[in-house]
Amino acid sequence: MKITVDFEECLKDSPRFRATIEEVEGDVCELESKLDKLVKLCIGMIDAGKAYNAANKQFVNGIRELAQQSTRDEVIESSLTKFAESLQEMINYHTILFDQAQRSIKTQLQTFVKDDLRKFKEAKKQFDKVSEEKEAALIKNAQAPRNKQHEVEEATNILTATRKCFRHIVLDYVLQINVLQSKRRSEILKSMLSFMYAHLTFFHQGYDLFSELQPLMKQLGGQLDQLVVDAAKEKRDMEQKHSTIQQKAALQDFSHDDTKLEYNVDADNGIAMEGYLFKRASNAFKTWNRRWFSIQNNQLVYQKKFKDNPTVVVEDLRLCTVKHCEDIERRFCFEVVSPTKSCMMQADSEKLRQAWIKAVQNSIATAFRDKGDDGEKLDRKSSTSTGSLDSSGEPKERSLKGESALQKVLAIPGNACCCDCGQPDPRWASINLGITLCIQCSGIHRSLGVHFSKVRSLTLDTWEPELLKLMCELGNKVINEIYEARREELGARKPQPGDPRHEVEAYIKAKYVDRRFVRRPSDEELRNKVVTLSKQEKRLSSSSEHLPPRPPPPTPKLRPGSNASGQTVKSADSGIQNSADGSREMLANTPSNNSLTDADAAESPPMPMPATLPPPSPCKEMVFYEPKEYSPGLQLYWASCARSLPDMAEALAHGAEVNWVNTEDDKRTPLIMAVQGGSLVTCEFLLQNAANVNQQDTQGRGPLHHATMLGHTGQVCLFLKRGANQNAADIDEKTPLAIAVEAANADIVTLLRLAKMNEEMREAEGPYSQSGDETYQDIFQDFTHMASNDPDKLNRYQQYDPQRP
């Protein structure tokens, strides 16, 4: 049997080499066992002549076992099998064979076992020892802190010496293995052939049986001479190759690298690059483990042992980036970041780190060049990764995923093709813009930064119900009417599917970053837009006669449109009537048919208060007054109140600040006005565009205060998920919880108390706590789905009416 271990492969010390060594060691160990058994059986046959027949049967069985062990060598297997069959028939004639057996079997095979196998075992011990020393030196070198130069130098010197010793030992070990594998065939066959000729000589009685076996024996005799010659030639060749490799290794600089790594995209085995790296675990202790990494089939994978199935780190390198990491203590670190996770790795030297970074970058570039239909396949496939780009730390939602979300979003006009290049059947979306994208445009959007575009997969990620409704409120057609209003006027060409990436990237940056194609409104147009939005809110209010009125403020303020005498005056611009007792007609939060879904509309009535309790301080009514100046921020302000997402998106495109403050109206923000408007989707749109969930007005009330006072349970749930501070108190020293308790709003009290309890539990569990209480997550999931899909269940009380007996 011949099992050749490659000298080049042993210097890499790869899992393939380790697997081969393990196989060879097992094979030699088993061979030694079988040979020892055969020799002992022969001795037993000699010493126990009277028990010859029984011993001879065992010996024949031993030959059969050796034949079975040599199944990979057809010559040995077939020959031994034939010999065993003949010996079984000759068992009654073997009475004078023992002397020849002493010389041919016992002496020759024992010499082979004691001499050759002993050398192999000694070489194995040295190899195992130096392997452990090398592994320890690698770990010590990797753990040496960058700021302790003496430790770094010491670790480097030890690693260099250990590697040099390892190269010599491993090359000698491989030579010993190859020589042994070459010699074993000739030794076994030579010994057995000698014993069989003894049978022919000393047992003439078995001539008839051996006459059938003789041609095979002669053939083997002729082959044996050639085998001996071949074995000697192979030994000389291996010794020469051993010497050449040893000289080559001595000339190379292995001070830091085990081997020279090169990126080869056309490798026969599909592996573009491979080698050892330390990987930081994702557990709480952030432990580092050394693994065999490889770049193959546009994926980054690693394995602990060669026999293990590879673990995929990045499924598609087109969706990731790679960067240096200099802000941690360990040296030579780099990070591969994908949309759903990141992987921190460490090379053994700076040279190897640069090689791996370059290899990942080349793989990304190659994948984009050769993607063809692969991009579509990537878009269509499902994955278990469901990471959210903007909801870190939130409980996992029982949300739509895969084809459900895809079908709903693509059904919106214009969404069936990529918003920027027109590629059909997009599988990605920008959630803060409300558009669909192809895989190439999604990568460009991701490079813009989350302050411009937040990218999420329509098939790989989960979709919260309020986010899905946001996507359905906007769409490619609406957004392109805003961001491409002047494109034809300026003569700009819109990219087409298959255009070069750099051209598409330049167009997208001009469209969303520079906003070059947005049509800037005149002052008159802006004024008309703001006035129209304010009147739209009044029409929404007047169309909700079936809703009970909201409680009036306890201490009214005089505004333009009312006089000091307390007489009723009606403003021509606002249409809002003020009365002598300071009460004003409140605007009800009801939806419009063209800008708000039924689910949002049903949530708009505020939560009730029993007639026996005093009402909480209500949110101030929405009244339009002629401002000192019109701005995109004011448009966003009233569009948020009017629940018009297209007008809100237009205001942001015109440069409106999402946290714009209306200094003429108690410093309210668009998010507070969205609460007044009663639309959950409007609030979600502002939050996705970086609205501050804790910004307060002059009364010290943030969006959570206003949502609690109006009884908007769905909005309260949304703000708590987005990190609203429930401990903030207004100028009356009231927190949202205190307001909800006064209003006897059980749903909001439950949400606030659960959020408080979950926060305390996470603080008690320490810095590694991530998930929080499961009860909290389950209840918030239920409220989220009711608020978006079945809001009638949240309207369980009648609104408080101060005139009710």
Q: Termini, distance in Å?
A: 103 Å
Shape: elongated
Q: Taking all residues together, what is the mean pLDDT? A: 75
Strand order of the largest sheet: 4-3-2-1-7-6-5
**Biggest sheet character:** 7 strands, antiparallel
CATH superfamily of the largest domain: Arfaptin homology (AH) domain/BAR domain
Total beta-strand segments: 14
- The number of domains is 5
CATH topology of the largest domain: Substrate Binding Domain Of Dnak, Chain:A, Domain 2
The CATH class label of the largest domain is Mainly Alpha
InterPro entries: ACAP1/2/3-like (IPR045258), AH/BAR_dom_sf (IPR027267), Ankyrin_rpt (IPR002110), Ankyrin_rpt-contain_sf (IPR036770), ARFGAP/RecO (IPR037278), ArfGAP_dom (IPR001164), ArfGAP_dom_sf (IPR038508), BAR_dom (IPR004148)
Biased composition (Low complexity): 383-392
Function: GTPase-activating protein for the ADP ribosylation factor family.
Main location: membrane
Task: Walk me through this protein's architecture.
The protein is of the alpha+beta class. The chain has five domains: 245 residues, Up-down Bundle (Substrate Binding Domain Of Dnak, Chain:A, Domain 2), CATH 1.20.1270; 100 residues, Roll (PH-domain like); 114 residues, Arf GTPase activating protein (Annexin V, domain 1), CATH 1.10.220.150; 230 residues, Serine Threonine Protein Phosphatase 5, Tetratricopeptide repeat; 26 residues, no CATH class. The strands form four sheets. Strands 4-3-2-1-7-6-5 form a seven-stranded antiparallel β-sheet, covered by helices on one side. A hairpin with a 2-residue loop joins β2 and β3. The protein starts with 6 loop residues before the first helix and ends in a 16-residue tail after the last helix. It is a peripheral membrane protein. GO terms for molecular function: GTPase activator activity; zinc ion binding. InterPro entries: ACAP1/2/3-like, AH/BAR_dom_sf, Ankyrin_rpt, Ankyrin_rpt-contain_sf, ARFGAP/RecO, ArfGAP_dom, ArfGAP_dom_sf, BAR_dom.
